[in-house]
Design brief:
By secondary structure, the chain is an alpha+beta fold. Helix content is 25%, strand content 37%. It is built from two helices and ten strands; from the N terminus they run H-E-E-E-E-E-E-H-E-E-E-E. The chain has a five-stranded mixed β-sheet, with no helix packed on it. The chain has a five-stranded mixed β-sheet with strand order 4-10-9-6-7, covered by helices on one side. The protein is globular, with a radius of gyration of 16 Å.
C-alpha cells in the first residue's frame, strides 16, 4: 500500500512540474531571449559536446553575441553519453539541475534546450533579446559538475 501511495505521489509531482514548465513556456518568457524563427537569417555557431577522461565539456566554452542577434546553434554530441544544451541564467540552471537529480531521465526539447543521444546532431534557433551573461549547461546529473557548462555574453 505504501508503495502505491509513493508511486501516485511521484506521478502527481512529475505532472505538476510538467504543467508549471508548460505554463512558463506558454508565456514565452525565457531569461536569455526567445525562440528564434528558422525562416529568418541567423549566424551559425557550432557547439560540440564531449567527454575527456572524467571531464565533460562544451567546445567552445565562451560565446559572444549581440543583443537582437539570432543564432542557429548547430549541436553535435561527440560523446559516448547523452548530453543536453540548456540555455538560461546560472541560477536557473542550478535550480533546474536540482530537479534533474530527482528526475534524471527528464528530457529537454524546449525552445531553449535540446537533449542529444551519443553521436547525434541537433539544432536550436535562438534570438537574444536581453543583454547580460547567460549559461549553457548539461543538466543531466553529474555532467554540469564535471565541467559541462559554458558562458554566453550578450553585448
Amino acid at each position: 500500500m505504501k508503495e502505491s501511495k509513493f508511486a501516485i505521489a511521484a506521478v502527481a509531482m512529475t505532472l505538476a512540474a510538467s504543467i508549471s514548465t508548460a505554463k512558463a513556456h506558454d508565456a514565452g518568457y525565457f531569461s536569455a531571449g526567445q525562440a528564434g524563427d528558422s525562416k529568418q537569417p541567423a549566424r551559425v555557431i557550432k557547439v560540440t559536446m564531449l567527454e575527456d577522461g572524467k571531464k565533460m565539456l562544451f567546445e567552445p566554452a565562451q560565446i559572444t553575441v549581440r543583443k537582437g542577434e539570432q543564432i542557429l546553434f548547430v549541436l553535435t554530441n561527440d560523446g559516448t553519453e547523452s548530453h543536453e544544451f540548456v540555455l538560461a541564467t546560472v541560477a536557473e540552471n542550478r535550480k533546474h539541475a536540482e530537479v534533474m537529480k530527482k528526475y534524471p531521465h527528464m528530457e529537454h526539447d524546449d525552445p531553449n534546450a535540446k537533449r542529444l543521444a551519443p553521436f547525434t546532431d541537433g539544432e536550436l534557433v535562438w534570438k537574444f533579446t536581453r543583454r547580460g551573461t547567460f549559461e549553457y549547461a548539461c543538466l543531466i546529473p553529474g555532467h554540469r559538475e564535471a565541467g559541462m557548462h559554458g558562458t554566453i555574453h550578450v553585448k
